[in-house]
Specification:
By secondary structure, the protein is α+β, with helices and mostly antiparallel strands. It contains three helices and five strands. The strands form two sheets. Strands 1-2-5 form a three-stranded antiparallel beta sheet. The chain has a two-stranded antiparallel ribbon with strand order 3-4.
Amino acid sequence: MTKADVINEIADKTGIDKADVQASVEAFFSVVKNNMANGENVYVRGFGSFVNKKRARKIARNISKNTAIIIDEHFIPSFKPSKLFVEKIKRSNKIK
């Protein structure tokens, strides 16, 4: 399912114009990205959490040149689903 499919489905279910739904969805993603870029986590009750995970500094190898590369510590975005979300997926008949 793509973002366009999500927008179409929300517009069909709510009766709201597709342009308004698209603006709302884009605004939601923009808020999530901007807050995570500022180091804040985003919690959506009943859905899940968008969190920044810290990756420690490590030494990697460039196999072709046989050299060591130091990768500094950094943060990556991550999503952790809520317990309600996980239980709904576990009980789903279509996935099995």
